[in-house]
Amino acid sequence: MQRRDRSRLPAAERRRQILEMTTKLIAERGFWGLSMQDVADGCGLTVPGMLHHVGSKDSLLVAVLEYRDEQDALSLAEKLGRPVHQLWSDGRITLPEVCTAVVARNAGQPEIVRLFAVLEAESLAPGHPAYDYFRLRQSTTLNQFAGLADSGVTDPHGLAVQVVAMMDGLQIQWLREPSTFDLVKAWEAAAARLF
């Protein structure tokens, strides 16, 4: 057991610390291997002290996923030079641009990609606490990507499904062999076929 951190952090900073520690642990062990005691220890808190900030293990999981989505949206908006609220609606970005930016972002954060890959697979079971989150996330992503498809595409939703499948598949290969698999180059080759 680690020594408890006696310093008091502002609530928002403490919550961010808890979310970051939980992200790290889920990426290593999956949700079912996540110990609330390990999260608390990593933050220098007691379990009840940590739960004061997050509620429950299930609500902590959803909070981690939402936090990571917010961070990724901010990064994507910055990379594309757009305000976050206009990313999907201003008509000035294309699907290939967004996909290239997403892959470049993901290539720099393997632990986050691993977190989502592990949780998405685990959440295929309807009783998983992130089941609804991932169903909604998939639907939203497909709609956003379809909305960015070139006007000449006859089946934008079909293209979006293929793009997501290709991105997810390449990421799994990259996570398995990170020293020999170049995610960005693999995506560029796939994008040339898809678009």
From TrEMBL:
<keyword id="KW-0238">DNA-binding</keyword>
<feature type="domain" description="HTH tetR-type">
    <location>
        <begin position="12"/>
        <end position="72"/>
    </location>
</feature>
<dbReference type="InterPro" id="IPR036271">
    <property type="entry name" value="Tet_transcr_reg_TetR-rel_C_sf"/>
</dbReference>
<keyword id="KW-0804">Transcription</keyword>
<dbReference type="InterPro" id="IPR001647">
    <property type="entry name" value="HTH_TetR"/>
</dbReference>
<keyword id="KW-0805">Transcription regulation</keyword>
<protein>
    <submittedName>
        <fullName>TetR family transcriptional regulator</fullName>
    </submittedName>
</protein>
<dbReference type="InterPro" id="IPR009057">
    <property type="entry name" value="Homeodomain-like_sf"/>
</dbReference>
<dbReference type="InterPro" id="IPR050109">
    <property type="entry name" value="HTH-type_TetR-like_transc_reg"/>
</dbReference>
<dbReference type="Pfam" id="PF00440">
    <property type="entry name" value="TetR_N"/>
</dbReference>
<feature type="DNA-binding region" description="H-T-H motif">
    <location>
        <begin position="35"/>
        <end position="54"/>
    </location>
</feature>
